[in-house]
Amino acid sequence: MMPNRFRLSTLAFLAPAVIGLLVFFIGPLLLNVEVSLREQGGGHGLAQYLRALGDAYYVKVWLQTIVLAACVTFFTLLFGYPFAFAIARSRGPVKGFLIFLIVTPLLINVVVRTFGWMVVLGRSGLINGTLRAFDLPTINMLGGWFAIGITLVHVMLPFMVLSIASALEGIDQALEQAALTLGAKPAAAFRYIIWPLSLDGVITGTLLVFSLSIGSFVTVMLMGNNRTMVLPVMVYQQLNLSSDWPFAAALGMVLLVTVLVISGIQLAIGRRLRRGQA
Amino acid sequence: MAEAASGLEAIQVSKRFGATQALGGVSLSIQAGEFMALLGPSGCGKTTLLRCIAGLIDPDGGDIRLGGRALKGVQPWHRDIGVVFQNYALFPHMNVAENVAFGLKMRRMKPAEIKAKVERALALVRMESFAARFPSQLSGGQQQRVALARAIAIEPVLLLLDEPMAALDAKLRGAMQLEVRELQSRLGITTVLVTHDQDEAMTMSDRIAIMSEGRIEQVAAPAELYLKPANRFVADFIGRSNQIVGNIVAAADGSLALQPDADAALRLPVPSTAPRQGRVLLMVRPEAIEILPGAVGVPAGMVGVQAIAADRIMTGDRISLYCQLGGLSLYGTLPSQAEKLAALPEKGAPVTLAWRESDAMVFAA
Question: Cα separation of B255 and B238, whole Å?
C-alpha cells in the first residue's frame, strides 16, 4: 500500500509542473513547428527552411546573430571574471555592496536602462559632452553594434558574475596557498588551480549569457539601426510587418536549434577543458 | 632525499590582527634535522607562526631565518618549504601523481626527472599503486600520505605540518604519527608541527614549544615539559594534576605548609623550594600519588596526608581514586591491574596519600 500511495502523491506533486510545461512550453513549440512547415497552397514541407537557409541575406543575419551573442559572451566573461573574483575574495559589507552593484541592471526596466546608455553614449551625452569640452572631435556611438554590445554586456554581467563568483567561493583558499608553497607564482596558481576549478561557473555563465543575448530583442531594436538585423528582430518583422507566420516560425526554429547546438558545443568544450587542465 | 637540512630561527616575530596580538615577539630556535612541535590551545598563535614561516602571512616585526638566510621579503614560492595543510589541500582536479608532480613542474624540471621523483616520493609514503587515483577516491589517511609526498617531493629545506592528523580517527592517527616521525628522521628534514593535541606533540617531537596568547611559555623535550614545567600554564596544560590554591603559613616548629582556600583548617606539606610566604598553587600529578589503604602513616622519604576514600573511576588503562580530606578533594591513579584494583580501599575507608617532595610543584598564584 505504502509504495503505491507514495508514487501517487509524487505524481500529484509533479503534476502542476508537468501540465504547465506541456501546456505553455511543449505545446506551443509543437504548434510552432507545425506552422513553420506550412507551405503556400496548403501542404506541409520544408519550403520555409530552404528559404531561410538559401538566401544570402538571411544567412548573413543568422551569422550576425551568432557573432553578436558570442562577442557579448566573450566581453561579459572578460569583464565579469575579475569582478566575480573581487566578490569571492571580499567580506562583509564590501561584498554586499559589490553584489548589489552587479545586480542593479536587473532591477531596472530594459527600456529605461537602454535610454540610460543613450544618455551616456549620445551625440550630446556624457562622453561626447566631455570630448567637446576639451575641443576634441566627437564620436557617434549610438545606433550600431557598439551601442548594442555595451548595453547587452551591461545587463548580462550579473548572470556571468554570479555564476563565476559562486564557483570561486567553493574553492578552498588552502588550495591556492598550497600551490604557492609548492613554488607556483600567483599567476601559475591561477592558471593551474583557480581557473580550472572555476570552469564550472564559467560554463554556466557563458551558457546563460549566450542563450539570453542571442534572443535579445528590445535592446537591439532600440540601440541598433537598419543594418544591425538579428534573428529575433527579423522574426518580429515577419510577424508584425509581413504577417508571414510560417516564415517567422521557421526563423524561430532556426534560432532555437542554433542555441541548442552551440550550447552543446560549449558544454563539450568546457568538459574537455576541465579534463585537459587536470 | 632532502637537501642539507636547515635550522630555523625566529627572532622577536610579532603579528597583530586588528585588536588581537596573535604573536607578541616570539623567538624560537630549531636545529637542523630537529622535529619541533608548536603546541597550545586554539588562538595561541601557533598557526600564525607557522604561516609566517611559510610566507603566507607577513609578520609585523621580527625576523625569520632559515639556514642562515633571512626570509623577510622572500615570497612563499621561493622559500622551498614543504607544507602539509590541515585538510591536506590536495588539488581535486589532479590525480595523485599530478598532485605530487605539481611542485616539480613549477620548478621546470624535465618530465623524466619529474616522473622519477614522483615515483620515489609516492614510494616513501607507500602510495605508488594509487598514482592514477583522484583525491576524492582516497581515504583520509591516504590523502594525508599524498599531501606528505607532495610536500617532500620538492625536497624542501623545511617541512611544516599544520594539524595534519586532526581529521583522522584515533587508531589511524596513532599509526600515522609514528609513520611520519619515522619518515622525518629517515630524511633528516627539519620539521615544525602545529598541533593542539599534546599526545601527538609528545609522540612525534624532539622538542615542544608550548604557546599561549601569542607567546612561548616553554621549549623543552617532552619528558622535561611533563616533569619540570617552567610555569603554571605549562604545568596545567600538559597532563593532569591535583591543583590546590592557598597561602603559605608557618607551622609551630617553623616549617612551612600550605593552608588551602578550600579548607583553612588543613595543612599540606610543601617542597622546600616553595616561597616563604604568599599565595601559591600546589600541583601534584595523580600518578605521583601513592595510595596506601588505612591510616598507616607516610613512608619515610615521602610527604603526604590522611584522607577518606571516595569515588573510583575506571578509564581503561588506569583507575583514579578520589579521596576527601576536609573540604579538599585529591585523586591518585593506578595502572588497571586486577590485584591493584582488589587492594584499593572501599568508599569511606581511611587512606594515606603519599608523594615524593620532588614530585610536588609550587607556583606563585
Answer: 30
pLDDT tens-digit readout, B33-65? 999 999 999 889 999 999 999 999 999 999 999
Q: Do the Cβ atoms of B247 and B258 come closer than 8 Å?
A: yes
More confident residue, A87 or A9: A87
B17 CB within 8 Å of a chain A CB: no
What is the H or E stretch that residue B47 is in? Answer: helix B46-54
Q: What is the radius of gyration, based on Cα positions, of chain A?
A: 23
A129 contacts: CB under 8 Å, gap ≥ 6 = none
**B93 touches A at CB < 8 Å:** yes
Indicate the pLDDT class of residue B1, thresholds 50, 70 and 90. Answer: very low
Q: B262 in contact with A at a CB cutoff of 8 Å?
A: no
Q: What are phi and psi of B140, to 5 degrees?
A: -55, -45
Smallest CA–CA distance, residue B19 to chain A, in Å, is 18
Contacts of A56 (CB under 8 A, 6+ apart): none
Q: Where are the alpha helices (DSSP H) in chain A?
A: 2-21, 27-36, 47-54, 56-89, 92-107, 110-121, 126-133, 145-169, 173-181, 186-189, 195-214, 218-223, 231-240, 245-277
Global pTM reads 0.82
Least confident of B1-5, B118-122, B350-354: B1-5
According to DSSP, residue B79 is labeled S
**Closest approach of chain B CAs to the CA of A165, in angstroms?**
19
Query: CA–CA separation, B194 vs B180, rounded Å?
Result: 14
C-alpha–C-alpha distance, residues B99 and B92, integer Å: 9
Q: Give dist(CA A231, CA A193) in Å, integer.
A: 40
- Amino acid sitting at position A271: R
Q: Does A190 touch chain B (CB under 8 A)?
A: no
pLDDT value for B364: 85
Measured CA to CA in angstroms, residue A156 lies from A97, A103, A276, A277, B42 at distances of: 18, 10, 28, 27, 45
Instruction: Output the average pLDDT for chain A.
Output: 88
User: Cβ(B99)–Cβ(B146) under 8 Å?
Assistant: yes
Q: Which residues of B touch A174 (CB under 8 A)?
A: 85-87, 89
**Would you call B120 helix, strand, or coil by DSSP?**
helix
> Alpha-carbon distance B135 to B128, whole Å?
14
Which residues, other chains included, contact B336 with Cβ-Cβ below 8 Å and sequence gap of 6+? Answer: B314, B316, B317, B318, B319
Query: What ipTM does the predicted assembly reach?
Result: 0.84
Please state, in angstroms and rounded to a whole number, the distance separating the CA atoms of residues A217 and A239.
14
Residue range B142-177, pLDDT digits in tens:
999 999 999 999 999 999 999 988 878 888 888 889
Sign of CA dihedral B45, B50, B53, B55: negative
**CA atoms of A125 and B224, how far apart (whole Å):** 79
